[in-house]
């Protein structure tokens, strides 16, 4: 048994580090949907003992990025149409609430930063030669910024921490198309205008419509990955 195991909670900072690396590997596609997370392999790869690795996997399971299958261990979640629909139904309600609260609490400086982000999106879109989706991180920051502007610590934890990875994983299943990119930018602009006008009802309505349209687009155009059936329990 390693010294980390003997020290119990002393390995928690190591678990935090492994959690971030595993999460990034999942979101980046390095560990694909349905893939088994081999404890011996991951412990060797990250140079850690089993204890912090298991803690990291447990936390990923809490955040719904990993599922445990009897006699097969931990695997990366596979997003089917029902899971995406369920996730976005929750997003529509919770992000709508966050936008409502943000309209009441957002500062002029935060509004200015959102407008700057929209301008960066516009420029990046014009520069994208392939008509793709060149500002994934800007889109994520945009939604996170509105949630933070709500000043509600529970909304922030729920959307920016607990389920942020799962929401981001949904986004990565979407086949980005130029027409949706332009529409999304227009919807973002309307939400920011509602926030700037301090109109909570309109801010909630426009956010809910934006998330609902994103859900519809993903469900119509998503590529559903298949779990690897070759892994042995």
TrEMBL record:
Keywords: DNA-binding, Transcription, Transcription regulation. Residues 12-79 form the HTH gntR-type domain. Gene3D superfamilies: GntR ligand-binding domain-like, Winged helix-like DNA-binding domain superfamily/Winged helix DNA-binding domain. It holds the Pfam family GntR. One of its GO terms (molecular function) is DNA-binding transcription factor activity. CDD domains: WHTH_GntR. This is GntR family transcriptional regulator. It comes from Ramlibacter agri.
């Amino acid at each position: 048994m390693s010294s980390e195991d003997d020290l119990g909670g002393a390995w928690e900072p190591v678990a935090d580090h492994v959690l971030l690396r595993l999460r990034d590997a999942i979101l980046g596609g390095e560990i694909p949907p349905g893939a088994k997370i081999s404890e011996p392999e991951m412990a060797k790869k990250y140079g850690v003992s089993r204890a912090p690795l298991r803690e990291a996997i447990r936390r990923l399971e809490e955040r719904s990025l990993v599922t445990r299958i009897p006699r097969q261990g931990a695997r990366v979640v596979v997003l089917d149409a029902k899971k995406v629909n369920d996730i976005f139904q929750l997003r529509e309600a919770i992000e709508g609430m966050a936008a409502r609260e943000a309209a009441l609490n957002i500062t002029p400086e935060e509004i200015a930063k959102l407008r700057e982000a929209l301008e960066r999106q516009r420029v990046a879109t014009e520069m994208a030669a392939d008509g793709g989706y060149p500002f994934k991180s800007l889109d994520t920051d945009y939604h996170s910024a509105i949630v933070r502007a709500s000043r509600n610590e529970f909304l922030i934890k729920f959307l920016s921490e607990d389920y942020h990875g799962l929401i981001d994983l949904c986004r990565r299943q979407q086949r980005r198309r130029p027409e949706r990119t332009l529409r999304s930018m227009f919807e973002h602009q309307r939400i920011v205008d509602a926030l700037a006008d301090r109109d909570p009802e309109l801010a909630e309505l426009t956010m809910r419509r934006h998330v609902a349209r994103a859900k519809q687009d993903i469900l119509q155009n998503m590529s559903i990955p298949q779990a690897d059936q070759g892994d042995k329990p």
